[in-house]
Amino acid sequence: MAKIAFILLCHKDPDAVIKQAQSLTAVGDYMSIHFDASAPQAAYDKIRKGLADNPNVTFPKRRLRCGWGEWSLVQATLNAVEAAVEAFPRATHFYMLSGDCMAIKSAEYAHEFLDRREVDYIESFDYFKSDWIKTGWKEERLIYRHWFNERTQKKRFYAAFNLQKRLGLTRRIPEDIEVMIGSQWWCLRRRTVEWIMDFCKRRPDVLRFFRTTWIPDETFFQTLVRHLVPEHEIESRTLTFLMFTDYGMPVVFYNDHYDLLLGQDFLFARKISPEARELKRRLGVLYASEGVRFQISNEGRSLFKFLTGKGRIGRRFAPRFWETESTLGRERELLIVVCKKWHVAKRLLGRIRQLTDIPCIEYLFNEESCALPDLGGIQSTMGKRHRHRRALMRMLFDYFESDRLIVCLDPANLDLLEDFCGDRAVTRLLEIECQFSDSYLIGHAMRVGLAGDRTPKETLSRLLPTIRNDMVHESDRIRDANFDNHLRVRETDPPEINAMALAAFLGLEEDKARAIAETEHLFAD
Hints:
By secondary structure, this protein is an alpha/beta fold. The chain contains 21 helices and 17 strands. A five-stranded mixed β-sheet has the order 3-2-1-4-9, sandwiched between helices. Strand 2, helix 2 and strand 3 form a beta-alpha-beta unit. The chain is elongated. The protein starts with a strand and ends in an 8-residue tail after the last helix. 35% of the residues are buried.
């Protein structure tokens, strides 16, 4: 069975470090702790004293002052790994942690997970071909030498960089090394760690190169593992669950995130708030538990994106030139069906096709697979459809040789509604107001990735009111926009009432509108 040696890099809160070490080693695992030399000596002494009687804890012989983006972080890790390899000969895996990490699975689950496959878990993506680096420097991290800390010695850092750039003092990457990049939170097998330690002794040239790269903790281990280990023995992922905000800051977890964390397909999570004492207590108890079954739903990131995105809906600073300088045509009528239940709108359009000759197109701005004619490529991707929305609509009018056209939109597409309803063409809006049962909302959550087959019922019960309120909010925003020619069909209204709205929307006589309103099972889920 797997035995884990945790490699802990930390710099604060000695009491929390002691508790973390006691919790993770209580079930027979190990820990090697590097406590930053920049921290007070008294804090380090407290940790040594608090764990002095724990045979499953060790410390590297030398403490380093670590700085973000520096080689010191990698060297501290190597020192801690070396101490763990020497102290714990029975350790099968070495797992990188920080003081802000906590287990979100039991030790029993973690050991069984690691025993399933003979692989290393480390993000390892091609440095130049991948999009792991979203913004900022890329090649500059490697081909120039970085001797100073960008955060504490900013002037020296950029002065050295600009001087090298001006004089053309670039350097080559070691020829037999393909640089990789990924998260610094990895879990490696003992054999891999021993290969890395041996490689460091044999290849001082590679160490010299990485010592002066920028942010080497994102490239050093990631590159060496890919260089030393067969590709089929590398799982390019981290086992530590972490998320980042839109501003690049780590998402912090609090007491009410317990159920969400347990449902993620990871062994640990980062960052746990220092104030989340109840969460820490429950997770600490969890690691030593036996017989716990976990329902893995893995919807954490999609939930975070959904919930934090609320309230941030805005408009572009300025419309595109092809939107301001073009119109659908004064003589044309664009009829827009707005409905959250897409299948209801599609049933309605199917019936309209049977009884009228008006061209109908379903959710062309929401479904990539929506059936569209070949319009020279403008219809080929969702991005092009949105960017060239008015040009696309004009081409559809021309293709069908019609001055009337019906399309479907999701209520979330307020920007499209504002754009089309502001056009010189005649625009009519038919909003279909549906009732949303809990079963429908659960299905919707699964379709959009907010939940999965294994999402706990407790998580769903908290999520459903938020989704329901979000749908109500979308409808309210449409009403607040005060669009002209805004008509409504309601699931709760009888067919004769809905027929009146349909007649006005489609410009039909009442008998045809009534036949459409009486479409069989129109609102059924």
